C-alpha cells in the first residue's frame, strides 16, 4: 500500500513540474539567446590588377638567396555569419606547391583582416623520371577553425612578352 501512495505522489509531482515548465514566460526573465556562431567565411582580397611576382633577395644574416615573391602580400577578410569582423579567430595558411610563407597562422584583427605576410613561390615545375611536370598555378589556402576556407591562386605561367612598338 505504501508504494501506491508514493507512486501517486511521484506522478503528481512530475505532472506539476511539467505544467510549471510550460507556463507563459513573456513577462518573466528573458531567455538567454544562443551563442553566436563561430563559423566564419574567409574571402580573399584581390588587389586591383591582381597579384604579380617580384624578384627579390632575402638575407638571413649569413646567407643570401634570390627568390620570387607574390606582391602585394596576400590578405583575407574574415567575417561571422552576421557580417561582423571575426576578431580573434585563428586562421591557418598553407600552400599546394613548394613555397614559403612568412607565417603559417595569424589571428584576425579588429577590421576582420588577416595575412600570412610575404609569400615566396617555389618553382612550378619538377623533374621526374617520366619528364618535367608543371602546374599552371599555385594556391595559398586560408583555413579557419570552423567555417569556409578561402584561397588565392596565382598563375605560374610567365606573362606574354610586350608587343613591339610600331615605328
Structure description:
The protein has 167 residues and is mainly beta. It has a domain at 40-155: Sandwich (Immunoglobulin-like), CATH 2.60.40. The protein has 1 helix and 14 strands. It has one helix at 2-21, and strands spanning 40-44, 52-59, 64-71, 76-79, 90-95, 99-101, 105-107, 113-114, 119-121, 125-128, 131-134, 137-144, 147-148, 150-155. It has a 4-stranded mixed beta sheet with strand order 8-4-1-13, with no helix packed on it. A hairpin with a 4-residue loop joins strand 2 and strand 3. The longest helix is centred in the first third of the chain and has 20 residues, at 2-21. The mean pLDDT is 79.
User: What percentage of the residues does DSSP assign to strands (E)?
Assistant: 35-45%
The CATH topology of the domain at 40-155 is Immunoglobulin-like
Strand arrangement across the biggest beta sheet:
8-4-1-13
Percent helix range: 10-25%
Alpha-carbon distance between the two ends: 116 Å
Radius of gyration: 29 Å
Q: Work out the number of β strands.
A: 14
Mean pLDDT: 79
Largest sheet: 4 strands, mixed
The H/E string reads HEEEEEEEEEEEEEE
Given helix and strand content, the structural type is mainly beta
**What overall form do the CA principal axes indicate?**
elongated
- CATH architecture heading of the domain at 40-155: Sandwich
Q: Low-confidence stretches at least 5 residues in length (pLDDT < 50)?
A: none
CATH class term of the domain at 40-155: Mainly Beta
So how many helices? 1
Amino acid at each position: 500500500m505504501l508504494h501506491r501512495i508514493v507512486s501517486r505522489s511521484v506522478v503528481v509531482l512530475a505532472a506539476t513540474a511539467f505544467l510549471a515548465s510550460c507556463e507563459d514566460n513573456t513577462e518573466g526573465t528573458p531567455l538567454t539567446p544562443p551563442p553566436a556562431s563561430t563559423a566564419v567565411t574567409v574571402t580573399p582580397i584581390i588587389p586591383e590588377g591582381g597579384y604579380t611576382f617580384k624578384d627579390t633577395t632575402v638575407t638571413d644574416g649569413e646567407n643570401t638567396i634570390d627568390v620570387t615573391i607574390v606582391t602585394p602580400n596576400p590578405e583575407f577578410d574574415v567575417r561571422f555569419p552576421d557580417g561582423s569582423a571575426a576578431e580573434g579567430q585563428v586562421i591557418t595558411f598553407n600552400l599546394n606547391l613548394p613555397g614559403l610563407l612568412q607565417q603559417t597562422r595569424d589571428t584576425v584583427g579588429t577590421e576582420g583582416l588577416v595575412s600570412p605576410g610575404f609569400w615566396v613561390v617555389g618553382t612550378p615545375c619538377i623533374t621526374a623520371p617520366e619528364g618535367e611536370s608543371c602546374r599552371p598555378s599555385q594556391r595559398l589556402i586560408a583555413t579557419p577553425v570552423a567555417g569556409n576556407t578561402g584561397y588565392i591562386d596565382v598563375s605560374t605561367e610567365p606573362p606574354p612578352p610586350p608587343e613591339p612598338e610600331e615605328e
